[in-house]
Amino acid sequence: MSDYTIQVSWSGKDGLADADPNKVISGSDFNTEFSAVQTAVNSKYDSTDLGVTLQQYDAATVKNDEATDFNDNTVSRLNLKDYGEVTNAIGSTGGGTIDIDLTLGNSVSATVDTSENTFTFSNPTASDEQCGFVLYLTNGGSQTVNWPAAVDWAGGTAPTLTAAGKDILCFTTIDGGTTWYGFAAGLDMQ
Questions:
Q1: What are phi and psi of 96, to 5 degrees?
Q2: Which of 80, 100, 109, 119 has its CA 20 to 30 A from that of 51?
Q3: What does the mean pLDDT of the chain come to?
Q4: Which of 54-58, 73-77, 132-136 has the least mean pLDDT?
């Protein structure tokens, strides 16, 4: 891309006497100048670049059509309004080990349905950052549920879960998951 640079010294012609033939602006002067302008303009914008190398401005969809990955960088002084969190909908646990992978969402839903269930937590943020998630657990008291040994429960004991209903549990860590703090936000939610 080139920038426009004046090719003809127009102001230099002002100092010439009216009778001086160099004071006259010739067609070739105009051609030289307009060719430079055309080259600069053509190199700055190409309509075929819209949506490819240039993001066309559209007030209704400004960057709403793309996910933004901040790659664990800090965003400061952010105000959020009308936001949502991605829910990792595990569905029926089916017994065994159920991993809550935080790269899939910080809102998690699961239904305990058969056999003993052992939850594990994976991929929290780095150890210098707060990381948390909310688990919406249905029928958690209908089977044995085991939690990671890293969970420190409010009051020192895991809550008694509802056999036929929904419990809301919160987990948070500030050391990359070495210790998780767990507490019931609501039991037997009706």
A1: 85, -155
A2: 80
A3: 85
A4: 54-58
179, pLDDT greater than 80: yes
Radius of gyration of the CA atoms of the chain, in A: 33
Name beta bridge partners: 146.
118
Write down the residue that tokens 């909310």 correspond to.
134
Give dist(CA 132, CA 124) in Å, integer.
8
Residue 31: other Cβ atoms inside 10 A: 12
Candidates 95, 84, 86, 150; CA nearest to 117 is 95
The residue among 92, 91, 86 whose CA lies nearest residue 133 is 86
Distance of CA 127 to the CA centre of its chain: 20
Name 122's bridge partners.
101
Alpha-carbon gap, residue 143 to 139, rounded angstroms: 8
Distance in angstroms (rounded) separating the CA atoms of residues 1 and 48: 16
Identity of the highest mean pLDDT range in 12-16, 18-22, 94-98: 94-98
b/e 61-95 (16+ beta carbons within 10 angstroms → b): eeeeeeeeeeeeeeeeeeeeeeeeeeebebeebee
Q: Residue 121: what residue type? A: F
Say if residues 116 and 141 touch (Cβ distance below 8 Å). no
Q: Model's pTM, two decimal places?
A: 0.65
Give me the pLDDT at residue 63, please: 56
